[in-house]
Amino acid sequence: MRKVILYIMIPMILLWNSGELSGAEINGVYFEDMITEGNEVLRLRGAGLLKWLFFKVYVAALYVPEDVSNGNVLEDKPKKMVFHYLTDMTSEQFAESGEKLLEKNASQDELFQIKGKLEKIHNMYRDVKKGGRYSLTYFPDKGTELALNDEVLGVIEGYDFASIYYRIWLGENPVSENLKYALLNKGEKWEGEGMEY
After folding, report:
1. Is the pTM of this model over 0.70?
2. Which of 191, 183, 179 is nearest to 18 (CA)?
3. CA 168 to chain centroid
4. Domain ranges of the chain
């Protein structure tokens, strides 16, 4: 039987309403409509639930400056993603599933160029329990900061890394089209099937 990796499962049900947001509550988890990182104000662009079969994996939210369009969200702009986990996950699952998704969203040459940085973030990940929150925050002058329950685990410098890593959720072949549409607040309802690896 092939190994199932929950982190990269496509959600079967995802609901989000378009329009201006004033915070979001999904599956009992609330996300603020606005957060401040340093001197930058980031607004909630969208949020969604990742669900595989009968398992609710996590709810995620995307924060970006108000003037950043969906078409520019992967460019060298500030951004923050917050993940609230609804099930336990291991650090090994984060690393393994991340690698599989990056292979679908980046060329071998691109991945080779950031190989050392990928190993670094894989080593940062820790096991997370239900109710735990990871965040991934990028600023052009700082890099990509990984935090667990507001504890900073490390920073990966360079836009080269951020431009590729955020493709896991926002690229052409994301973890889920459902989640991508919800994060970008496109007001769509999608249904998908779980995947096995």
Report:
1. yes
2. 183
3. 7
4. 6-183
The torsion angles phi and psi of 107, rounded to 5 degrees, stand at -75, 165
Write the Ramachandran bin of 15: left for phi over 0, alpha for psi from -120 to 50, otherwise beta.
Answer: beta
Which residue pairs from 136-139 have beta carbons closer than 8 angstroms and sit at least 24 positions apart in sequence?
136/80, 136/81, 136/83, 136/165, 136/166, 137/37, 137/79, 137/80, 137/81, 138/78, 138/79, 138/80, 138/162, 138/166, 139/37, 139/38, 139/40, 139/78
Give the H/E segment covering residue 57. strand 55-64
CB 14 within 8 A of CB 57: no
CATH architecture, range 6-183: 3-Layer(bba) Sandwich (3.50)
Contacts of 119 (CB under 8 A, 6+ apart): none
What is the chain's pLDDT, residue by residue, as a tens digit (197 residues)? Answer: 433 333 333 333 333 333 444 677 888 899 999 999 888 899 999 999 887 777 889 999 999 999 999 999 999 999 999 999 999 999 999 998 889 999 999 999 999 999 999 999 999 999 999 999 999 999 999 999 999 999 999 999 999 999 999 999 999 999 989 899 999 987 544 333 222 22
Strands 151-156 and 40-52: unpaired
Beta-bridge partner residues of 56 = 51
Q: How far is CA 171 from the centre of its chain?
A: 11
